[in-house]
Electron transfer flavoprotein subunit alpha/FixB family protein
Amino acid sequence: MARKVLTLGEVRDGALRNVSFETIGAAKIAAEGGEVVSVLIGNDVKSLGAELIQYGADRVVVVEDEKLVQYTPDGYSQALMTVIDGEKPEGLIFGHTALGKDLAPKIASKLQSGLISDATSVEEAGGNLVFTRPIYSGKAFEKKIVTDGLVFATIRPNNIAPLAKDESRSGEVSSLQADIKDLRTVIKEVVRKASEGVDLSEAKVVIAGGRGVKSEDGFEPLKELASVLGGAVGASRGACDAEYCDYSLQIGQTGKVVTPDLYIACGISGAIQHLAGMSNSKVIVAINKDPEANIFKVADYGIVGDLFEVVPMLTEEFRKL
Ligand code: FAD
């Protein structure tokens, strides 16, 4: 059944995040031949609309207001509800990002709709739309079949491939005026922690350290390997709790969920709460002194050894390529 599906473009530091293109890829499947309309919310964001079209959106609707410079659930939901009232979509697909996780349930409750959260794939099967999502911290997957009503889902970043960029594509990028009422929350200032290198949640390569790195300095070889591979550094909660690194690097059930092409776990035992955040990575390499470590059960390649010997060797070899 062809349907109109809305996606939400996410903007960070003046550029679209990859997940914006992945939601279009998912929406194309969910639309089953219908129209995909991307929504851009912010202030001075209209120029980004063309890129969403190049990644497959049929149309872009832009809501701009100076009250929307920063994300607030209040402001964004007012803007989005204005678009939804006008467009009357049969589907909505957001990224399962910090923003999507916050906004989607709010919109779902306003629309009195169900919500499939954290989907890792969507397909058409037997005349129905089927979303797959991890359960029990990624130990199993369940399939959700949409039989009727609004198709509303958030998709996990780095799982559903975006369409190839087609620079010859063009389409309508229109502005919509929304009456954004006074916001209950106003963001006065955003103080960013200085972060080096690649964004962990979007990195294609993640080098993660656990308690086995033993100190803050123990992360240095991992940072070097990450820089040679163009990747980001992550950590287990064990390493964060031990104050070897900042909690913003934590991967797992109570940290970030990452699905890079390559995940190298260094000195991480592989507790279930850690696996919940990385077991969907495409290729997992584990380096651990203990051959019985649980991490080897999910690893594609295991290296039993001291990370302080193995990691510099890998860095040297990759440098030669
Ligand atoms: P450890 O379990 O201590 O493992 C260290 C590993 O390093 C060992 O396997 C050891 O053999 C190896 N090692 C030591 N020295 C070396 C060396 N020189 N070379 C190679 N290997 C070496 N954890 C998370 O990671 N993320 C979460 O989001 C998370 N959420 C949680 C939520 C809840 C409610 C709870 C209860 C726990 C959570 N945890 C989480 C904690 C989790 O249970 C583990 O305690 C934690 O993941 C362990 O971290 P670790 O593997 O770094 O440390």
User: Anything to note?
Assistant: The two ends are 49 Å apart (CA to CA). The mean pLDDT is 95. The pocket of flavin-adenine dinucleotide is lined by residues 210-212, 236-239, 250, 252-255, 267-269, 271, 273-274, 277, 287-290, 293, 306-308 (CB under 6 Å). The first strand starts at residue 5 and ends at 9.
